[in-house]
User: Fold this.
Amino acid sequence: MKSNEPISEGLGATILGPRNYPREQQNPDLLRPPPTDRGLVPNLRFSFADAHMRLSEGGWAREVTQRELPIATKIAGVNMRLNPGAIRELHWHLQVELGYVLSGGCRITAMDQHGRTFVDDVFGGDVWFFPKAIPHSIQGLKEGCEFLLMFDDGCFSEYNTLLVSDVIEHIPREIIEANLGIPLNEILSIDKKQRWIFQGRIPELLAKDYISKNTVPQSFSSSMKKIEPIMCDGGTIRILDQAKFPVMNNMSLAIVEVEPGAMREIHWHPMEDEWQYYLSGEARMTVYMPDAGVRTFDYKAGDVGCVPFAAPHYVENTGTTTMRFLETFRSPVLEDVSLQQWLALTPRELVEDHFPSFTKSTLDKFNKDYLGIVRTKTLK
Ligand code: MN
Ligand code: MN
Assistant:
């Protein structure tokens, strides 16, 4: 049984002053850092549990952006809930939007710059992608829904989107009347309250909803459920990138499932920063940054993690249940470099000269294949 005090390997002392015990319990690797941690690594974790909840009629949203997690400059995340029939107002934004359905079902609609439309009903495990500035909406189906949105800019905010109601209310009335044919009295009767998320009618079955046969040539929706997993010893990796979802031209997404007693092996990515969202279980991750140092963070469901470009890291399942997380990149491809594979495929003499203490049998164990996930211990 480990102590609940910052004491490790003969160093440290008990805490005498005030303490937030539940927080310390959630951060065992900050309270008692591994002796390999050092230096000035910035914060690489922010929990949606610590994010402001914006409540609205029929739903809510909370966001983890660069404001909450300053290192996350490339991607911002929004967690949103819509009751049955509740609508995320017709809107658009400067950034692309990658959606992942966490629970329930929702209807998404969009129209592109050529007047081609898109409508689909998406459910748990499905994803959508809206290119930048393409107008769209989201609405809860009869079961309601909750989803995660990811945007290709850490400064994105749900407070900075272009809402159809706001646009119509702030263009001179005679212009709206002339352009849209809306009589002045109907314009003056527009309900001034902020819509953003508001209660609507539960949508009809999709077939009745189609208003156009001229649909977008590349679907705006896909699903992680149909992705063939990379089978690893200790878990699976499912990758969705532009090769499988052509419209998604500057984002990629993976779902990693790690069994108890296993970890996403030590690796780094040659494309971009990694933005993570933890779906279930418990994890810890150490990140090595050449200019800053090394730090270890603990993660639970609903937490966001971040890994700077090219920084080596692993993600260990520290719990007793399957640990699942999303890794997202502002890149059309998702690739990684494995430390183990690199050492295995480097001329043996070169590795031996770096590490004279490593025996031949140790070096023989390096695996030349890509593993992705490896066992850390044998479970009873
Ligand atoms: Mn949007
Ligand atoms: Mn990674």
Residues 267, 269, 274, 307, 313, 327, 336 surround manganese (II) ion (ligand 2) (CB under 6 Å). The two ends are 18 Å apart (CA to CA).
